[in-house]
Amino acid sequence: MRTVGVEEELLLVDPDTGDPRALAAPVLARAAQDDPGQDVFEKELFGQMLEFATHPQADMADLGEEIVRCRKEAARHAGEIGCAVAALASSPLPVSPSLSMNERYRWLAERYGIPTWEQLVCGCHVHVSVESDEEGVAVLDRIRPWLAVLRAISANSPFWQGQDTGYGSYRSRVWNRWPSAGPTEPFETAERYHRRVADMVATGAILDEGMVYFDARLSAHYPTVEIRVADVCLCANTAVLIATLSRALVETAARDWRAGRPAPDPSVSLLRLADWYAARFGLEGDLLDPVTLLPKPAEQVVRSLLEHCGDALAGSGDADRADGAVRDLLRNGNGAREQRRLLARTDSLRDVVTGCVRLTQA
């Protein structure tokens, strides 16, 4: 059974006003005081962000419990210094980000200028174990058309600097300002993958391998494929669904590779359009079908993902759980829909944030 680990970035906010607060350093200090050996929580690019990482899990129920536990622990540490955590992929309220001070982050700010200061966005990265770099690259080549569907499912960033952007995942539009971000062409072999990464670093446009921000990549530190397209999900159940579908996509791709089935070969140009559809509409309109790359209703495309991964989901015992989670998601909506629903009910972006603080731990 392939193991799965999840990294989530959370927004630190004032519990009363909803304004983002640059308190990552004292929150991390409090976490270290409570557990000197803790390796769960880390700082991120800005002081208004807090990241945690789960351990690798083979059972999705165990992974879900750990995500909920980490969110609650983050909320407890934050609460002890007077702030709260919200699983929001962008701040609904206006914010001036505070850069975390270390050499790497200063380099980013000096190198890229204004786009660096616009990166106060929170994502969810899913690590799925692979047996080798060769298998990992075969997986990367085969999951490319399906990644936009994960983007649409996770969409949780409709607001930016106090305004409705019209997008479900505006975070993805911000994130793609990095020069190394986005979809890739097929690599075909591990040797070609690593050569491409080395060539990118050699240009000097990026600092190192850690800045290869492909939508999915080989992890530089773990024997995993790292899928990086998802917004941080408002509800933990949606994060578990993203992880479940990610593992099933990886397993399906690996089986196809071992069976000698060729990887699909859509152009990067079309994959960018599919990603735009997912970011713009989330689950509220059409998406591009990963097979035909023509528009279809989002519900049909999400269900086609379940069908594509059906054997892998059945093999891991996740088929019923995934089917039920998708039904709930299509009925109730993702984080973007819930944020807009909260705004329609309260007419206050501050109330949107405080409502999302509660939902983060639900």
From TrEMBL:
It holds the Pfam family GCS2. Its EC number is 6.3.2.2. One of its GO terms (molecular function) is ligase activity. It is an enzyme of class 6 (ligase). The keyword Transmembrane helix does not apply. Keywords: ATP-binding, Ligase, Nucleotide-binding. It catalyses: L-cysteine + L-glutamate + ATP = gamma-L-glutamyl-L-cysteine + ADP + phosphate + H(+). Belongs to the glutamate--cysteine ligase type 2 family. YbdK subfamily. ATP-dependent carboxylate-amine ligase which exhibits weak glutamate--cysteine ligase activity. This is Putative glutamate--cysteine ligase 2.
